[in-house]
Specification:
Two copies of one chain form a homodimer.
Chain A: E1 12-17, E2 21-22, E3 28-29, H1 35-47, E4 53-56, H2 60-75, H3 77-81, H4 83-89, E5 92-95, H5 98-109, E6 114-117, H6 129-139, E7 143-148, H7 155-158, E8 163-164, H8 179-191
């Protein structure tokens, strides 16, 4: 198993934010954790050698749920049957707030991460994911791609971010892909040269 | 709502194959349909203006399940609450076999589709998804990206395909992403110029 610290290239983290996010009426809510999001993002983190993916939720029972899931795959029967799943789920970490995740990355990497918000709508100041990679390569700082559940990140989260990534555009005007698929495409664009 | 027939560029279809696929011991099985796969692939089909995504399963009760899901979002309360989901789920079609899906595409497009198998392992004769797009542009034929559930497509399915797409490679040696995330990345690579 490769050690994330020995991987060449920038240290990029993921944060899957469940609060504060907005609902379809634009109100601030706490979204529920979706089991399959965690599996898919953990497997993506492993594929692209991200040191970790933070599951951000302030709800203690949801945090317990995530810890139980991780425990099942790391120490339960799950890991014995599917060692590739164990290897992936190891990269999940739980945080109560995005600020807590940021502080943790700074402690681990010795420097604060650049944060990029992601959204289905463009902001006019978006950077291409490949440009974001160049920023990390040029500065030597770690980075964090911030993904929102529900109907997207709230303004409070946006204000913690240094910039936004250009949204995934398709061939038409439809822009409602799942956070799982968005993360996959953005990571591929980030690392692909 | 844009009509797929008016979309510029090649007509690419998806097929999500549940049989015949293999299990982790390499045995031929029929995999169960996963609700979230259908949502994610339908939303991707809508994003990239694919005329349709075929859900391939020979099991009548699984076909009924898919029809019920589609009905819920097209005619039930689902579509009223989430019109973007209704728009996406419209692109799902059920087929008993991959051959049936191929015949349907040929009928719809007037020419048989080029088929590309997808896999987590390279085959030595893979083409880049962007090359596959060029083949469709040059020949004017429709195409179909064939995705396997379970542990991947069986040999019987491979023999129906004209070629294979280069697998998604990350930064390390881990190659176990979900079929949802693989489809997202391959479609993005296919259409991105």
């Amino acid at each position: 198993m490769s050690d994330p610290k020995t991987v060449k290239g920038p240290a990029l983290y993921l944060a899957l934010v469940h609060a504060p996010v907005i609902n379809r009426r634009g109100e601030e809510i706490v979204a529920a954790v979706t089991n399959l999001d965690l599996h898919d993002l953990a497997r993506l983190a492993c594929t692209y050698e991200l040191p970790a993916c933070y599951v951000v939720t302030p709800l203690k029972d949801q945090q317990k749920l995530v810890h139980r899931l991780i425990h099942h795959w790391l120490h339960g029967i799950g890991g014995q049957l599917h060692p590739d799943r164990e290897r992936a789920l190891r990269r999940l970490r739980v945080a109560s707030t995005l600020e807590e995740a940021i502080a943790h990355v700074e402690e681990e990497q010795g420097r604060p991460p650049f944060l990029w918000a992601t959204s289905a709508r463009g902001s006019g100041t978006d950077v291409e994911p490949s440009e974001a990679r160049l920023i990390l390569e040029a500065t030597g700082r770690p980075g964090m791609m911030v993904l929102g559940t529900g109907w997207g990140l709230s303004g409070k989260v946006w204000r913690l971010c240094h910039g936004t990534l250009r949204p995934v555009e398709g061939r038409g005007d439809y822009n409602h892909i799942s956070v799982r698929c968005a993360a996959a495409i953005l990571l591929d664009r980030f690392f692909r040269k």
